[in-house]
Specification:
alpha/beta, Aspartate Aminotransferase, domain 1, binds glutamine, Aspartate Aminotransferase, domain 2, binds 4'-deoxy-4'-aminopyridoxal-5'-phosphate, 2 domains, 4-stranded antiparallel sheet, globular
Amino acid sequence: MISLHSKLPDVGITIFTVMNQLGAQHNAVNLGQGFPDFPMSSQLTDLVNKAMRDGFNQYTHMNGLPLLRERIAAKVQKLYSTSIDPETQVTITPGGTYAIYTALTAALQPGDEVIVFEPAYDSYIPNIEVNGAKAVLISLAFTDYSIPWDEVRQKITAKTRMIMVNTPQNPTGSVLGENDIEQLRAITAGTGIMILSDEVYEHLIFDDIPHYSILRYPDLLERSFVCFSFGKTYHCTGWKLGYCISSAELMKEFRKVHQFNCFTCITPFQVALAEYMQDEEAYLSLPKFYQRKRDFFASLMKATPFKPMVSHGSYFQCYSYSHLSEESDKDFALRLIRDYGIVTIPVSAFYKNGKDDKALRFCFAKKEETLEKAVEKLVKFPS
Ligand code: PMP
Ligand code: GLN
């Protein structure tokens, strides 16, 4: 019998897989894992078919199809007024999660410390630990989920190598503002501290709030890996395609890890995306498109006893049930699947120590009829 010394002894199966399976068993409406249930653009799927028929079926450039990287650089120039070099600063990856993993693997040495704000997307901490580094955890302020910068300053040590930020944030929907950027700048200036900015929800931002991308700030980009996902922008999470933007210096190391892990991403999809990215409306329309969904869901949820928390971005909205039950959020979420037929994600799953604020995350990237069906079930919950 062969056994191995686990690199991730505390890690089980992700909450998304667990909740999906339970949901399927109970035939429940799934507002758990983040993915749209409406179709993606047929123009974009047609472009993939065309690229395959046109013969784009062999390896493309290791760092990504050159034309796609050029289109990304043009988009960055237009949206964030920063000039980046597609040759040296952009790498196409099989998804945002992989981009984050690759950046952490390129950047971290055993014993390094990385500041992580919780609740956090569940891949961050294992991806730090698998590299022998340590996640230094800081809870976002309850209930607005802002960053407590004084605590960040207190937790910086000689070993701090990186600060991870995520805007708009999963699972809370909180967003960074100008003051957060100033704080990041003040804390990192003159140090060797890098920034990993997870911006996969860059276009899912509401209430006319601008997206404070690290890409707007060339001085911060010098020390940053900024990660994106085509899956979120084009309603195709199953494509698992994304990209990372960094300085040429940092990107050199990123690519060393990438070349022996994945080497190159699926070619015809990159050909199709390069063509489709010329349609700016497809992403410029997203804030309004998703804001309508958030507001529609919120209007339905008024008929339930659940209390909304703030969401300015992402396709998630958290609701509190602390006035309704003493149960842990995991037990409560299980009860909602079993007795009411609806899947949510307990927010404690995004804290390493399972901190339980009695809140559930709902994904509203769904057809109106799905949201209606879900809320029809939830209104039966006694107030
Ligand atoms: N970061 C966050 C915060 C996410 O929610 C996701 C979605 N899974 C990702 C990164 C990565 O997306 P993907 O790997 O599916 O492109
Ligand atoms: N980002 C998605 C979410 O938070 C799911 C990603 C995953 O299943 N790993 O729901």
